[in-house]
Amino acid sequence: MEFHYPNGRKYTLEHTRKLATPAQQKISYAKRGMALEDDINDTNLYYLARGMAVIHKKPTPIQIVDVDYKKRSTAVIKEAYFRQASTTDYNGICEGKYIDFEAKETQSTTSFPLVNFHEHQISHMRNIVQHNGIAFVILRFSKTEEVFLLESEVLFNFWDRMKNGGRKSITKNEVIEFGHKINIGFQPRLDYLNILKEIYSF
To answer: Global pTM?
Structure first.
């Protein structure tokens, strides 16, 4: 199956296939990012069930181009395009506040690479803040299972520094210093809303 970005460039995971056997691909690549996503989704369901907030994962718009219809029950998508560049992963509302955020993971134990973000995502978050919305990122250090909330304004500072020739990553010490650690619990799994209320006083 082929996917293409809005500019027509082919999206491929070929480099991952060169680095791992089929069995390793299933573990190392297919599930990468899913642990954090699952935890956030569970947390959002907890918020929704208790009337605390309405926050959902944004669907990725895809245009299907070619489908193999040998049998309806076994139809296979052969080629598709991303209709547009994605913005951020989640958005919603809490007590009249618009919330918009991105969730990212890294295997590094010492820093968070800024290459994990894209220009259009940063621009999108800047627009949210300009209209008095709340934008932020949730970062997870996979190997140590540590999760942090980083306010968008802090991310903008590191992003702008990189664009001006600075470092292409945020050190873990900087994430600890400027971010807010999200303790992993049971219900909710990642209580980021409690941190937002402390930061923005709502």
So the answer is: 0.76
The rounded average pLDDT for each run of 10 residues, N- to C-terminus, in the chain (202 residues) is 54 42 40 77 98 92 65 67 70 98 97 95 97 98 97 98 97 98 96 97 94
Map out the domains of the chain with their CATH numbers: 35-59+85-200 (3.40.1350.10)
3-state DSSP of the chain: CEEECCCCCEECCHHHHHHCCHHHHHHHCCCCCHHHHHHHHHHHHHHHHCCCCEEEECCCCEEEEEEECCCHHHCEEEEEEECCCCCCCEEEEECCEEEEEEEEEECCCCEEEHHHCCHHHHHHHHHHHHCCCEEEEEEEECCCCEEEEEEHHHHHHHHHHHHCCCCCEEEHHHHHHHCEECCECCCCCECHHHHHHHHHCC
